[in-house]
Amino acid sequence: MAELQLQNVALFRMDLPDHACPWGLKALRRLQEQQIPFEDHRLTSDAEVQAFKAQHQVATTTQIFSSATASGSAGTAIWRPCW
What we know:
The protein is of the alpha+beta class. It has a single domain, classed as 3-Layer(aba) Sandwich (Glutaredoxin). Helices cover 28% and strands 41% of the residues. The longest helix has 12 residues, at 22-33. It is globular. The mean pLDDT is 82.
């Protein structure tokens, strides 16, 4: 089995003034613990959250995107860890 090489990792998480998404915080901690370099994109308003979900056609945040390489092929992947 080929190992997945994560590159250009981007974390998108809801971080509103009155509510930080616990899944986003967990994803942030896991990426840091695994020493995976990533860009942290905080969605700080409901309008930003809704625009992100519409643009990427997803129902929820937190989302982690990566350019991934496995078995000699390259492409963009959405990495959805099982937590």
